[in-house]
Design brief:
Blueprint: H1 3-22, H2 33-51, E1 53-55, E2 64-66, E3 73-75, E4 82-86, E5 91-95, E6 101-107, H3 109-113, H4 117-122, E7 131-135, E8 140-147, E9 150-158, E10 163-171, H5 175-188
Antiparallel strand pairs: 1-4, 2-3, 4-5, 5-6, 6-10, 7-8, 8-9, 9-10
Length: about 190
């Protein structure tokens, strides 16, 4: 555990103890739903944002990423981005500060959750998907659509080792601006 994470964790535990003492309940018991929601939000902010990822330096003139844990790679359109890699090495999150978010990651769903290839392919037709394409021979699917004012695009591979996924979301009104980004990322995304 890094020093930053250790300090945040101690602070979080202190907040739980203080809340429990204030509400006159035993350690580990939180008195109300409001408090649970507050602590859950604090936990996400502290661990989901600060401790769960480290910023990665990417060459803005030729942005690319290779994942050592799962072996996938991706390139995207040159520009200025914030790029964070998960502490566990599963993948990255890329943001441009104008509404674009791209996440690329691997996960061991076949081994851990027993995900079959057929269950994997059914995801291409999930609720809200407006366009989908499945390539059973090469083991991938694409799903896209619009939801809550955003365009989303997802491509996922079922490999012998893991499920490798890329998803991109951005505001619908910026579709023309991000078409090139999506095209570059999709073309280069390899498991």
């Amino acid at each position: 555990m890094t020093l930053k994470r250790a300090v945040i964790f101690r602070w979080f535990v202190h907040q739980i103890k203080a809340l429990n003492a204030k509400n006159n309940v035993s350690l580990g018991v939180v008195a109300s739903c409001k408090n649970v929601m507050l602590l859950g939000s604090l936990f996400f902010i502290c661990f989901g944002q600060l401790a769960g990822a480290e910023e990665v330096r990417i060459d803005p003139s030729s942005p690319k990423y290779h994942n050592a844990r799962y072996g996938f790679s991706i390139k995207w359109t040159p520009g200025t981005y914030s790029v964070f890699e998960a502490d566990n090495g599963d993948g990255i999150t890329v943001k441009d500060g104008h509404g674009l978010t791209m996440r690329v990651w691997g996960e061991l769903e076949q081994d851990v959750f027993g995900l079959t290839k057929e269950e994997f392919f059914r995801r291409a037709h999930a609720e809200g998907v407006q366009y989908s394409k499945v390539n059973r021979e090469k083991g991938w699917y694409i799903a896209s659509g619009q939801q809550d004012g955003n365009v989303y695009y997802k491509k996922s591979f079922y490999t012998n080792v893991a499920v490798i996924t890329m998803d991109i979301t951005y505001p619908s009104e910026r579709r023309k601006q991000y078409d090139v980004f999506v095209g570059d990322a999709v073309k280069s995304f390899k498991p």
